[in-house]
Amino acid sequence: MSDSASPTVRMAQGVVSAIRQEATRAYPHEGCGALLGPAPGDVSETLPLPNQEQGNPRVRFTVSPQDYLATEASADSRGLSLLGFWHSHPDHPARPSPTDRAYAWPGLLTLVIAVEQGSPGELTAWDVPGPEAPFRQLELRVDPD
Questions:
Q1: Considering the chain, what percentage of its residues have pLDDT values greater than 90?
Q2: How far apart (Å, rounded) are the C-alpha atoms in residues 132 and 121?
Q3: pLDDT for 48-70, tens place per residue?
């Protein structure tokens, strides 16, 4: 991501399609996955991750420490970086919630996709520019495969 006032996240159409498919599959629960790429803001693939949330998977997602470490190892082995995570909001807008902010890490992307009645909708990109900072919306540019 650039340091301009409007950072941009780039991803291929195939990545967006994979996120939409996995978010639809997870409905009515939140789906989630990792975002991998060669450089910050340049997402080249997504890996679906099981939502390990036991309490309320309809409105929360949890990635296990084992899945997180395996994802980082997979990215590293292919010369990629773990850039962040996406998750779905079933029957809710593609805007981060206060819970999302409480668990967001500075330096990692957060993508949120709305899924209305099982149909994937808007996809938005966010980051947290500092430990106490609120989410900042990023421009999302989808490139052809």
A1: 86
A2: 30
A3: 999 999 899 888 899 999 999 99
Q: What CATH number is associated with residue 56?
A: 3.40.140.10
Q: Domain count for the chain, please give it.
A: 1
> pTM value?
0.93
d(CA 130, CA 74): 27
**Beta-ladder partners of 109:** 84
Longest C-alpha distance within the chain, in Å?
39
In a domain, 3, yes or no: no
What's the domain range around 135? 8-143
**47 touches 87 (CB < 8 A):** no
Residue type, position 73, single letter: A
Across the beta sheet with 109-116, the strand order is: 42-43, 8-12, 136-143, 119-127, 109-116, 81-90, 32-37, 45-49
